[in-house]
What we know:
By secondary structure, this protein is an alpha+beta fold. Helices cover 37% and strands 10% of the residues. It has 16 helices and eight strands. It has helices at residues 6-19, 36-45, 59-63, 65-68, 109-128, 143-149, 196-200, 218-223, 231-234, 246-249, 269-272, 276-279, 284-290, 300-315, 321-325, 333-348; strands spanning 24-28, 74-81, 99-100, 132-135, 154-155, 161-162, 170-177, 240-242. A four-stranded antiparallel sheet has the order 1-2-7-4, with helices on both faces. The chain has a two-stranded parallel sheet with strand order 3-8. Helix 1 packs antiparallel against helix 5 (109-128) and helix 14 runs parallel beside helix 16. It is elongated.
Amino acid sequence: MDDQAPTEVRSALEAEARAQGFAGFGICAPDAIPQAMTRLETFLEKDRHGQMGWMENRKSWRGDPTALWPEARSVIMLAEPYTPETDPMWLLDKADRGYISVYARNRDYHDLVKKRLKRLGRWLIETAGGEIKVFVDTAPVMEKPLAEAAGLGWQGKHTNLLSRDLGNWFFLGAVFTTLDLPRDTPGADHCGNCRACLDICPTNAFPAPYQLDANLCISYLTIEHKGPVPVELRRAMGNRIYGCDDCLAVCPWNKFAAAASEAGYWARIELKCPKLCHLVALTDAEFRDVFSGSPIKRIGRDRFVRNVLYAIGNSGDRSLVPSVRDRLDDTDDAVRDAARWALGQLNAARPVSSDP
Length: 356
């Protein structure tokens, strides 16, 4: 570590991280989450990962950071807020509009956070030497347990990370380094008796506090689940067409949430409350153009339009029937299935009377 004391390096590193825009900073050892493997195995054994086979692949790395990179001596965890300007829940009452999760209303956070992590990593190498590897949600790294071990907060009853200083609207990034740096005290649980996140879930996706069944989670269903969504879950999806923020938005700790300083997270106007009639008509080329640079692009046009059709079916708005009929002969099986379901729901909907 050159001639600098580890405490001096750590202090300078935190200052640099905050100067680059990170709102949360903490350090833990790679072996700081010994419980992670057992919890992961239980999750997988109960088939709560749905179609996410990647969670089981390389399980040995995911459950044990020391196996991922044996040379690492410290894990630096960073938090970057994407807090919305207002409570996004108001949009759930707008049946003719689509709800897109707050984190996906502009640029892809993977790209933005990773660039910042690389800059911080280069600074660390130039300042103190060593080697680094950076991770942002795409490698077999369990960021939330590591962030808790690094003192950034605690995993709440909704399984997401919570912070007394940041609320729960933030992304996590990790910098593994061969430098041996001072560790932080792990975060303590401050959920108390609160059940707000559990009780608001539209599909009852939490079997118990601190446990999630992805098979029932709307974020999973709209993003990761391929093919038709189980019929019994479609009504509960409402107008959520990409992700779900209910359990995050209702958390009382958000009164302390840090504002998003990165302009790339500020919602694009056309994605704040997009019209379903416009989205359902997207061709593949139009979809790619509209969502260029967005995390939404990853799921592809077919899965996205499938979600939009479920939202239309839940809208009760019969003026959307022509838009649905246009998708009955779509090239994608799941889109055609969603169109048939949506048409059935709209035909069964009673016209809204304007009489008093």
